[in-house]
Design a protein that fits this description.
Blueprint (H helix, E strand, L loop, with lengths): L7 H58 L7 E7 L9 E2 L2 E2 H18 L3 E5 L10 H11 L3 E8 L9 E5 L5 H17 L4 E6 L10 H5 L3 E9 L3 H27 L11
Parallel strand pairs: 1-4, 1-5, 5-8, 6-7
Antiparallel strand pairs: 2-3, 6-8
Helix pairs in contact: 2-6, 4-6
This protein binds zinc ion (ZN).
Length: 266
């Protein structure tokens, strides 16, 4: 086929050139587009990395600024009665005074022991604290043991000796606690061992309030009868040793892990 001078071939060439330019232009646009997309993505990725790094840094910072968890066993020493409630009495002698006397030493002794932090519900005899509030002091502190310290009383003046009260459905920790405290007090010297008692004096299906309201292991130590002369003589002679002996038992039981994970037990 022959082409004239103004033939179509050159036109076609121009058209091809135009198309070529158009294609190149499109290609350039596409390449530029893709490359900008890629750089955008990589920026986002970098930003994410930055966010990650920042978060990690924050976490590390937070970890280092959070106070080291206090792993001490918290023991709440609870001298019974106070204020308008003097507890049992015998002549001039009142339970409220005796309780604080030996509880203060138990408290001080426990605070000397490694890994134990003792708190005390009262430090004077003129404050009245309801049993529910005493339990709340322990609960709020996250105590591992609530140790209620009392002295006993009976109309029968010959009634004597030591007993430890625990919850009505005594667990191993309650039994061990009662047993060890009684054994330790026996070694110091008591008139008689009245055993570990579960429940409430007149109703074994119920607990003493202080045991009922506390979220952790709790017991009541009845350190002799205030209504018995010989128990009082022994108390006056040995109350410091009794207190140290009780602290020894608690320290040993803490070390043996008896109070681990006892929260929410009755
Ligand atoms: Zn009492």
């Amino acid at each position: 086929m022959e082409y004239n001078k103004s033939g179509s071939r050159p036109v076609k060439r121009r058209l091809r050139k135009d198309r070529l330019f158009a294609c190149l232009a499109v290609l350039v646009i596409v390449i530029v587009g893709i490359s900008s997309l890629i750089s955008g993505c990589s920026k986002k990725a970098k930003n994410k990395d930055k966010e990650k790094t920042t978060k990690t840094d924050v976490q590390v910072t937070q970890q280092t600024t959070v106070p080291v968890e206090n792993n001490n066993y918290i023991i709440c020493v609870d001298p019974g009665h106070g204020g308008s409630d003097p507890g049992s009495n015998y002549g001039d002698r009142t339970e409220v005074v005796d309780n604080l006397k030996y509880a203060t030493i138990v408290y001080e002794e426990l605070n000397k022991r490694e890994g134990i932090e003792a708190i005390i519900t009262r430090t004077t005899n003129d404050v009245h604290i309801e049993n529910k509030e005493r339990a709340e002091i322990s609960n709020r502190a996250g105590a591992d043991l609530h140790l209620a310290l009392h002295r006993n009383q009976s109309e029968d003046s010959t009634a004597n000796g030591v007993e430890v009260w625990v919850q009505k459905e005594a667990e191993v920790v309650d039994e061990v606690l009662g047993y060890k405290i009684r054994e330790a007090l026996k070694e110091v010297g008591i008139q008689s061992d009245r055993g570990t008692q579960a429940g409430y004096t007149s109703d074994k299906q119920n607990n003493f309030q202080i045991i009922e309201y506390t979220d952790m292991t709790a017991c009541i130590v009845e350190l002799g009868f205030i209504s018995n002369d010989e128990d009082n003589r022994l108390f006056d002679k040995h109350y410091k040793e009794y207190a140290v002996a009780i602290a020894d038992v608690i320290e040993e039981m803490c070390a043996d892990g008896y109070f681990d994970d006892t929260s929410s037990d009755d």
